[in-house]
Each structure stands twice: as C-alpha cells, then as structure tokens.
Amino acid sequence: MTQDCYYFVFCKDDLLLERCPDGTFTIPLGCLPPTETKPWTPMLNVTQIDGVSVKAYAIDTPVAGNARYEMCPLRQSYYKLDEKLYLTAGKCAELLYWDRNTRFCGVCGGPMKFHTNISKRCEHCGKEVWPQLATAVIVLIRRGADEALLARGRNFKSDFYGLIAGFVETGETLEQAVEREVKEETGLSITNIRYFDSQPWPYPSGLMVGFTADYAGGQLHLQHEELKTAGWFHRSKLPKLPEKLSIARRLIDHWIAEGE
C-alpha cells in the first residue's frame, strides 16, 4: 500500500500550496504527486514531518486555473504556512537548487548520483559531495540606550532599512566577520559582539547568523558599492523595517522590546 507523503512542488522560485476549506494553506499531502511528472523528473526524498515522508520536485510550468492550488513565492509562503512547513519548504528548495547545480563531478566530469538524501557520489571516481551553505553574519549595532544603526543596501528591492550584513570569508571566525563587515561597509568600530540567533535563508542556500554589538567609535563612511544610505535611528522614530520573516527584523524587534 502506497503511503501518503508531502509533496513540495516548485516552479522556479514559486511553491505549490493547497487551499484548505477554512481558507488557510498547506502543502499537498497524498499518495501521488499533485501534478503530472515525467519519468525523468528528479523526485527527491528530503526528510520527514511527524513521521510523514517529504518529497520535492520541480515543474516547468506553474499550476494555474485550479481552485484547489495556488503558486506562491517561497518568501511569501512564510505568511501562509505554519513554521514547520515553511522551514521544510526552504530545505526542499535548497536541495533542488543543489541538485540542479551538481549534475556532474567537479573532479572528473562523471555523472553524480544521490548516495544519501543529502549527499551525491560520482559514478566514475567516487568523489562524494554535500550541499554547501553560504554563511553570512548580520549585526544590530547599538549606540547608547536608544539608538541603532540601520542601513539600506543597494540590493534591497524595497525602501526598508535593515542591518549590516555580509558573507563569512575563509579563515575567519563569525565574530571576526562581523567586525570586518562593519568596518568595511561603515568605517565604524564596534565592541561587545554577542551571538543572538541563526536562521536558514534558502535564497538560494544561505545560513544567517545574527549578532548584537555596541558602537565603539568612528564616523560613518559608507561603502557605496554595498549601501545606499545608513544612519543612527532612535527607537521612537524608525524607518520602514524589514519583513517579519527575516532575522534582521527579529534583531530589531528584540532591541525595540528591550526599551519598553
């Protein structure tokens, strides 16, 4: 007897959601895929949710004109799915991205095949690979009791203000990465660097590590290749903030709550 499983179906960056009778959304659950698949469609066995298997695959054409289903950008699914399903959707998206980009061995060029759910092995030379994460740090910098440094990055698609962030380089600790990124992007010195929290960031395959720090000195000198603008903001007069799904917003909300 075929067991039911969750099917996380992606078309590019959009995720297939199923409408529930009460107006909420979930992930399709059943013994068969919710869309047509081809014999060559890669069907990934990803994990389990409460004992139910999770499968993921990609389709070329979005599902449309079906009252039962809706295509939703992965980021926006945060607001429609419960946290467990949203996090699993991110994991599925990362593995599908990794699968598309590791079809052939980087050593000998041979075909790569799944060895476990999260590893591949070359059929020719035996080289084994695992999904790689791009680790980034993000930091909320406090100045005194009521001010924090907020910035608008050049890659922001909206007019919100976020935090200083950047990728960790080879050979440095997370704390060193925080200190370097702040110095490079703002010219400021910081102290009291403290770990806050971390967050998977499957856009396409990142891990965000959050920190807080205190202003130690210096004048703002922006790295304009990275930042449009930045400044010190009082907690009582803040600009437009990042979306709730981001660790940047959690850091800012935590700082605001500290002053209440």
Describe the protein in words.
With 260 residues, the chain is α+β, with helices and mostly antiparallel strands. The chain is 17% helix and 38% strand. It has helices at 83-100, 174-186, 247-258; strands spanning 5-11, 14-19, 25-26, 29-30, 44-49, 52-58, 69-73, 112-116, 119-122, 128-129, 134-143, 147-153, 164-167, 189-201, 206-217, 227-234. Strands 1, 2, 3, 4, 5, 6 and 7 form a seven-stranded mixed β-sheet that branches. Strands 11, 12, 13, 14, 15 and 16 form a six-stranded mixed β-sheet that branches. The N and C termini lie far apart (57 Å).
How is this fold's topology laid out?
Blueprint: E1 5-11, E2 14-19, E3 25-26, E4 29-30, E5 44-49, E6 52-58, E7 69-73, H1 83-100, E8 112-116, E9 119-122, E10 128-129, E11 134-143, E12 147-153, E13 164-167, H2 174-186, E14 189-201, E15 206-217, E16 227-234, H3 247-258
Parallel strand pairs: 1-6, 11-15
Antiparallel strand pairs: 1-2, 1-4, 2-3, 2-7, 5-6, 8-9, 9-10, 11-12, 11-13, 12-16, 14-15
Quickly list its features.
16 strands, six-stranded mixed sheet, 260 residues, globular, alpha+beta, single chain, seven-stranded mixed sheet
How many distinct beta strands?
A: 16
Q: Give the overall pLDDT as a whole number.
A: 96
> Largest beta sheet, briefly?
7 strands, mixed
Question: Helix tally?
Answer: 3
List low-confidence stretches.
none
Strand content: 35-45%
Overall form: globular
Percent helix among the residues?
Answer: 10-25%
Please identify the structural class as seen in this structure: alpha+beta
Order of helices and strands: EEEEEEEHEEEEEEHEEEH
Tell me the Rg in angstroms.
21 Å
Distance between the termini: 57 Å
